[in-house]
Amino acid sequence: MILKNRGIAFKLNLLILTSVTLIFAAIFTYTYLFTRDMLVQEIEQGAFNLARATAKEIDSVLLAVERTPENVAIAMEQFRPQSTDFTGLIESSIQHSEEIYGATVAFEPYEYSPTIRFFAPYYYKGKEGMDFTYIPYDYIYEDWYQIPKELDRPVWSEPYFDEGAGNILMSTYSVPFYDLEGPEKILVGITTADISLAWLQNIVQAIKIGKTGYGFLITKNGTFVTHPNSRLIMNETIFSLAEARQDARLREIGQSMVRGETGFVSMNCEFTGQPCWMVYAPLSSNEWSLGVMFPKQELMAGVFRLNKIVLALGIVGFFVIMILIMAISGTITRPLRALTRVAEDVATGNLDAEMPKIKSRDEVARLAGSLEYMKTSLKDYIRDLTELTAAKERIESELQIARDIQMGILPKVFPPFPDRDDFDLYAEVEPAKEVGGDLYDFFFLDNEHLCVTLGDVSGKGVPAALFMTITQTLVKTRATQGLSAAEVIEWVNRDLSQENPSFMFVTMFFGIFNLNTGVMDYVMAGHNPPYIVRANGDLEIVESTKGMALGIREEARYESAKLTLQKDDMLFLFTDGVTEAMNPKNDLFSEERLEDLLRVIGRKPIKEVIARVMAQVHHFADTAPQADDITMLALKHKGND
Amino acid sequence: MPDSRGASWFSINSCRANTGKILLAVCLLVFAGALGAPATHAREVRLIPQWVPQAQFAGYYMGLEKGFYKKRDIDLTIIAGGPLKQSSEYLASGKAEFATLWLASGIQMRDHAVPVVNIAQMVRRSALMLVAKKSTGIRTPQDLNGKKVGLWEPVFQIQPTAFIEKYGLDVTIVRQSYSVNLFLRGGVDVASAMWYNEYHTILNAGLDPDDLVTFFFHEHGLNFPEDGIYVLEDTFNQDPEMCQAFVAASIEGWRYAFAHPEETIDLVMKNLKAEHIPATRVHQKWMLERMQDLMYPAGEVFTPGELKYEDYARVAYALQDFGLINSVPDYNTFYRKCYDDTQK
């Protein structure tokens, strides 16, 4: 992990600042969403109110206009007034209405008079007061006439430009009237009122939301009646706009609008291209739909400004916290770094390194105290250790001397009897690190009897060495008293057993070899049997005499046995340091390996045999430390020629 | 309100030459003939399409714009048609050498002794259709029984009337004006519409194609091919090569228009603006695309400009049955083939 190798200040900064940033982001997001939603709700409510109020304002005018032709229609149905009467009615109704531009009563063909096919006197506000004309064309297929006729109900027409009135935008409200006297009601004609839509456009254009918000009005067909983009007016429908924009959603919104629904939607403003909310509400009179665009960015400016301030505060806070953390972590890490230097100094041995001054009483101060204590303790310890080491060195050197003395007891000069050529004898000891307890010896009892001994004291160290020295001395002493081999060993056993408080013991091979006969009288006291390599290379194991190790039981009895060495036969003695040498896998060198080896090299000169065995044991042990002394002794009978 | 054209006059369909206008044209022709109008060999000629320069005539305008007439030694001027400039009248009186007319109108003129000849039948399919809202429960022709059906003036009533007879329907016919408002408000259950015009107007009033049921007459064995190019018989006799060149240039113009729709719509919008006719781009685009469908219907084998006898006979005999002509003019005198595939 990256953090592992970083300093405390860095870790503190990273973890705390990350947490703080996350917390702040969460708070910021929540605040933003909450304030935004609240504002959007308010805007939505306000938008609906505005749209409804505006629609109501328009409706109130249109509904007032509707009453005029409705009243005329009632009058026509009730009284069937003659031309002069109802034209006066029309004229006065126009004069009394600000909004109405012109009005007519249009009759079905021949309804007014059997001789007049079309009759439709039309009054309108001319440039110089009231003007009058008869509608000069076959009006019955015009929308303003035909739609109310076919639908049997009053209808507001789609808006149109009236060239006669100066190319202003107009809409007509048409009310059918009937002959109610017959069994079936029969359409007699249509009364109308034409209004200019200029005032309506003014009302809608007066809607200003912020700098870029605006209102617009579409008809039942979706045609734009007012829009800040004048190119759209009377030219495009909301659906053709949707088709041009390839905007299926706009088409759906338009369909909702012309169905007379009310809604609040989010969309891109047609006029500015900015994101907007749009509220729409229907006019109840003519089923047109009023839309108002609310520019999001302007209305949300407050929220955005608040966001910016909160964000700026957050950033400032972030840096303040960062500086604080750096300061605090500095008070921790500075003494820590100083303490680290001290510890490094101490590690290199400078126990007098000066401790930094720490004023605080916190964990760092305690650490400094501990370090100081450690330093003092270390000093004391090192002093003690120095003394101990000196003592140990002295002991070790003494031990070395003891060892040298011990080894000095063993005969080391070969050939030991250069004037004798009737036998070869060679021995070698490889002591383990500590002072050990292997021993060997050979000496003449008389001119023809050679005494050979090889033993192994239990345990190690100084006691074993001393025990070995005693044994060596005892053997030599007893052997020279003219006793048999078994007697020598019994005496030595008795001597060793009597003064053996620490219950040490020694295994031993003891033999007295008659150089004339080649017969050896031997005793084995708990020792591993030696080998004989015959002159022809055969390997024999010397039969054990089954005696126990010396120094254990005072009254133990020992019996001797005899072996015979012919010319060039070799007796090979060894301690268990050879066969129990271990390699790193804890395998033993073992008797088998030794026997195999002796079969191969057993007829070589004895010095070489011992050297080869020693080399093989070392090779086998590899890196494993030597646990025990390795001692070998070889005797070859040359015969007496 | 006294202005009869109202708000929607510009959306009037192209070819509403009524019989009164045709009679007037006949009179003018007779008058012109008495003056012995000279048929010069001057290559300066005029074309009048039967309506305003909307996408319905884009091919001719594009041909002029791209010099397809010029390279055939024709110095063409296009006179914009309109409610006050009937192409039949201009053709009859010699104010234009070339005119586009509906096939039915052309046959009627011929029957009324105006010697017009069809030199190219450009539109192969009838765009006339009936439209109904699914909300009225109409799905099949039989569902029209008992419904109110809006129809235009007589020349547009031939196909619907034959349709009504074919399916044995009993409907109430309401005369339909130039706007589709009567239909949109529910004053009629079924409306007449031109596919490339009123149908799109209905879509752009918020009704989805899924809300509507359509009956195309060409799908009911009542295909009356519409726009074709007409000249007076004398013009053709004096310079048949020029007529052939004119047709070839026109076909090339149309091909170019269909291959370059945006460029073509630009030109259409420019022309409409020059005529002070309010227009929307999407509507003209729709119209151009439908013209392609009508002029190059998928699956029909034909030579461009060809007037097939079966189409001619279908229209002519229907007119006769309807009493709109006295006799069926001879096919071979009425139609002069001016283009085949090998021509360039």
How would you sum up this structure, described in words?
The complex is a heterodimer of chains A (641) and B (344). Chain A has four domains: 39-195, PAS domain (Beta-Lactamase), CATH 3.30.450.20; 201-299, PAS domain (Beta-Lactamase, 2-Layer Sandwich); 302-378, HAMP domain in histidine kinase (Helicase, Ruva Protein, domain 3), CATH 1.10.8; 411-637, Phosphatase 2c, domain 1 (4-Layer Sandwich). Helix content of chain A is 44%, strand content 22%. Chain A has 14 helices and 23 strands. Chain A is rod-shaped and about 185 Å long. Chain A starts with 7 loop residues before the first helix and ends with a strand. The model of chain A has no long low-confidence stretch (mean pLDDT 87). Helix content of chain B is 38%, strand content 15%. Chain B is built from 13 helices and ten strands. Chain B has helices at residues 19-34, 58-65, 87-93, 103-111, 158-166, 181-185, 198-203, 233-238, 240-259, 261-274, 281-295, 309-321, 331-334; strands at residues 44-48, 75-78, 98-102, 116-121, 128-133, 148-151, 172-175, 190-194, 212-216, 227-232. In chain B, helix 5 links the parallel strand 6 (148-151) and strand 7 (172-175). Chain B starts with 18 loop residues before the first helix and ends in a 10-residue tail after the last helix. In chain B, 54% of the residues are buried. Chain A binds chain B through residues 102, 104, 122, 133, 135-139, 141-144, 146-147, 149-151, 155, 157-164, 170, 172, 192, 194, 220-222, 234-240, 243-244, 251, 254-255, 258, and chain B through 1-4, 6-8, 148, 174-177, 179, 181-182, 184-188, 203-206, 208, 278-283.
Which descriptors would you attach to this protein?
heterodimer, A: 641 residues, alpha+beta, Beta-Lactamase, Helicase, Ruva Protein, domain 3, 4 domains, seven-stranded antiparallel β-sheet, six-stranded antiparallel β-sheet, 14 helices, 23 strands, 22% strand, B: 344 residues, alpha/beta, D-Maltodextrin-Binding Protein, domain 2, 2 domains, five-stranded mixed β-sheet, three-stranded antiparallel β-sheet, 13 helices, 10 strands, 38% helix
